[in-house]
Amino acid sequence: MRKPNELLTSRTRVEPRFALLPLEGIPYSRLPEWPKGAVRVLAGPALGARFAEYLLDLPAGSGGSHPADGEIESFIYLLRGTADLSIDGTGSRVAEGGFVLVPPTSSFELTASSEASLLLLRKRYEPAAGIPMYGALVGNEREAKGEIYAGDDGAKLQTLIPDELQYDMAMNIFTFESGHGLPVTETHVMEHGLYVLQGKGVYFLGSSWMEVEATDFVWMGPFCPQSYYAAGSLASRYIYYKNVNREIAV
């Protein structure tokens, strides 16, 4: 938040194929399924995305739920705090760095056991003939081994959701040491919802390099040219979504 005597400059960019959204410009709102949560909407169809993503701040003892509706799958990543989770009546504890993927055939309830912040991504599940529905997935990023990416030991990729055909989405975490980045300008059919967890760097979006830092959100639509280069004293980390493993609708 800027002081009254400061100019209202902004790094925010919203274009047809991408958006860079610093949190300072996103107001809080509320959701019926998370009645006591302070919610910031990061992405949705109004932006051009085919998914919805939220940043939720939860007071201790509050939470949310979603019934099995056969249509919407949910991914949750805990940024801080702890929470109690129940999926179809089976309980577990989720700590910082924990993640949950709930299929559309399951219901879930999550209650913060301490003050907590989380990312919630919701999308419509895409069934495929002959591919069975997956079961709920609960884990922690610490259990996901960081693999060296493209032969660069300063770039590590953690795959949170198995790369198997029953999953129609991927959630990954990239970690780049300062001075390292993606080796090419990517241009592909998958879209991304990306949240910067730590550090800073420059992202190439469309035709320009843009500064990004922790808590920024980036949406990249299909075929948006994109690349990244890490800078600063800390390694930079971001978690990102992409749609995968399905035929392209024609």
Tell me what the structure shows.
It is a single chain. The protein has 250 residues and is mostly beta strands. It has 2 domains: 26-142, Jelly Rolls, CATH 2.60.120; 143-243, Sandwich (Jelly Rolls). It is built from no helices and 22 strands. The chain has strands at 13-14, 18-21, 29-31, 34-43, 52-58, 63-66, 72-80, 83-87, 90-94, 98-102, 108-112, 116-124, 137-140, 147-149, 152-159, 169-176, 192-198, 200-205, 208-213, 217-220, 226-231, 236-243. Strands 1-2-20-17-22-16-15-14 form an 8-stranded antiparallel β-sheet, with no helix packed on it. A 7-stranded antiparallel β-sheet has the order 3-4-5-12-7-10-13, with no helix packed on it. A hairpin with a 2-residue loop joins strand 3 (29-31) and strand 4. The protein starts with 12 loop residues before the first strand and ends in a 7-residue tail after the last strand.
SSE layout and pairings?
Elements: E1 13-14, E2 18-21, E3 29-31, E4 34-43, E5 52-58, E6 63-66, E7 72-80, E8 83-87, E9 90-94, E10 98-102, E11 108-112, E12 116-124, E13 137-140, E14 147-149, E15 152-159, E16 169-176, E17 192-198, E18 200-205, E19 208-213, E20 217-220, E21 226-231, E22 236-243
Antiparallel strand pairs: 1-2, 2-20, 3-4, 4-5, 5-12, 6-11, 7-10, 7-12, 8-9, 8-11, 10-13, 14-15, 15-16, 16-22, 17-20, 17-22, 18-19, 18-21
